[in-house]
Design brief:
One of its GO terms (cellular component) is membrane. This is Sterol desaturase family protein. It is found in: Endomembrane system. GO terms for molecular function: glyceryl-ether monooxygenase activity; iron ion binding. InterPro entries: Fatty_acid_hydroxylase, Sterol_desaturase/TMEM195. The protein has 345 residues and is an all-alpha fold. It has one domain. Helix content is 57%, strand content 0%. The longest helix is centred in the middle third of the chain and has 24 residues. It is globular and about 70 Å long. The N and C termini lie far apart (102 Å).
Length: 345
């Protein structure tokens, strides 16, 4: 019975319906008129979409257990390992850095706009470093290992990634003067949208969302981010607003002629939990062992994935440059020869 009670508790927590169940049991729905009540009503949206996604796959006989198995195993493992780490990281950063903030904001619409732009910048920093610093890539790579896109991918993270991300994002926002209530509201919106943009083709075949594709980052843009195609590597680091990707030149639309290949570039077993979860740490350890001298060992930790002390670099930047040069050369070869003007006799 204890096991069943725990299982029911975890299920209710996952679905985000605890507060709604409490309202139903008490018959008091006045909480829906409050800010917390509205958040409680929105929380089950992503789990509901996930169940709908799985249900559609089952009905149309497109369900493959391997598409969902590994993210689910990672989610269960993280529930045991990192239940309170991220909350503690946020609380620590608020308590430590709030006294050093540049100024104080209030919970108003104009400060909300300011706060979201700052939050998106902090998210860009964490996410960019997660791809450009080898140690941080070890934390982030688990999220990129799934070879299909569906809503369970939003639950596939290494257990230390959330604390690492929240330390950076919370610190930047608190120092920029965003007060905690406003920050938590932004976090909720960002978390909900950040989960939604992982929606798979089974529910949203075309993830461009019409005219919104030119205004915000859509599921289409995030599918590009999860691709291992050379053209798409290290792009679309923001979550909702594409402003910072455009500022720093990392923005990339999905191209109809370029079919997305999901996953990471190194050879791995997507059905092996230890390879998915710890594989990049193992690869880093092997590089550290063979690297000559302390300097090279440190460089392996802080340089981008693919950097090598031998000079034979295979970073995303180099791979992408080689691909674009090859595409340019191929396009040049396909150009028709200019018409020759007849010479006068």
């Amino acid at each position: 019975m204890e096991f069943l009670h725990t299982l029911l508790h975890e299920l209710v927590s996952f679905l985000g319906i605890r507060r709604l169940l409490e309202m139903y049991q008490t018959g008091d729905y006045h909480a829906l008129l409050t800010f917390d009540g509205v958040l409680s009503a929105i929380s089950p949206v992503i789990p509901f979409l996930l169940l709908l996604e799985i249900g559609r796959a089952l009905v149309y006989k497109r369900f493959r257990i391997e598409d969902y198995k590994m993210p689910f195993i990672i989610f269960v493992a993280n529930r045991f390992i990192s239940r309170f780490l991220s909350i503690a990281a946020v609380a620590f950063c608020i308590g430590f850095f709030e006294k050093y903030s540049l100024f104080k904001t209030s919970f108003t619409w104009y400060w909300f706009i300011y706060g979201y732009i700052v939050w998106e910048f902090s998210h860009f920093l964490y996410h960019f470093w997660g791809h450009k610093v080898r140690l941080f890539w070890c934390l982030h790579s688990t999220h990129h290992t799934p070879q299909t896109m569906n809503l369970t991918v939003s639950y596939a993270h290494f257990f230390l990634e959330a604390p690492y991300a929240d330390v950076i994002r919370t610190t930047v926002c608190i120092l920029a003067g965003i007060n905690p209530p406003l920050l938590f509201f932004i976090m909720f919106i960002d978390g909900t949208w950040g989960a939604f943009i992982h929606v798979g083709e089974g529910i949203l075949k075309n993830g461009r969302l019409g005219f919104l594709n030119n205004i915000i980052l859509t599921p289409s843009h995030h599918r590009v981010h999860h691709a291992r195609n050379p053209l798409y590597m290290d792009t679309n680091f923001c979550n909702l607003l594409n402003i910072w990707d455009k500022v720093f030149g990392t923005f990339q639309h999905e191209k109809k002629e370029t079919v997305i290949e999901y996953g990471i570039t190194r050879e791995m077993n997507p059905n092996n939990f230890f390879d998915v979860y710890f594989g990049e740490f193992y690869c880093l350890w092997k590089d550290l062992k063979k690297a000559p001298g302390i300097r090279n060992k440190l460089l392996y930790i802080v340089m981008p994935p693919g950097w090598s002390h031998t000079g034979d670099h295979k970073t995303a930047k180099i791979v992408k440059k080689a691909y674009l040069e090859e595409e340019h050369a191929h396009a040049h070869d396909q150009e028709p020869l200019p018409l020759q003007t007849p010479q006068a006799v």
